[in-house]
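sanity check this:
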Amino acid sequence: MSSAASPDCSAAQRAAGRSPRATPTDLHGLLDDALALYRGLFSDVEIRTHFADSLPKVSADPEQIRRVIINIVDNAIEAVERRGAIDIETQHDAGHSLVRIVVAFLDRSFRKKR
C-alpha cells in the first residue's frame, strides 16, 4: 500500500478532522477484527477469507483501513441482497513491494434473475 493518499482519501481525512496516522499494520489481523463484526449477523451471507501465506506489515492508518473494509463489506452485502458469498483475499507482490486486498462477491440469486 502506498503511503501517498489519493485526493478523495485526503478530503475524507480532512472531513474526519484528523491527519492519517500511518503505523506498521498487520493487515490480516486488522481484516480478522473487522470481519468478526459480521459473524452471525447474516445467515445467507458467507464471508470467506483467502489470505496470502506471508504478508509483511504495511505502513497504513489502521482505523481508516478498518473503516474502508467495513464500508466495502457493507456495500457487498447490500449488492448481493443479503444472500451470497463475499471473498476477501490478500496478495503480496514482493517484487514490486506491493500488498493488495481484493474483495469480490457472488450473488446467489444471479441465475434466478436471468
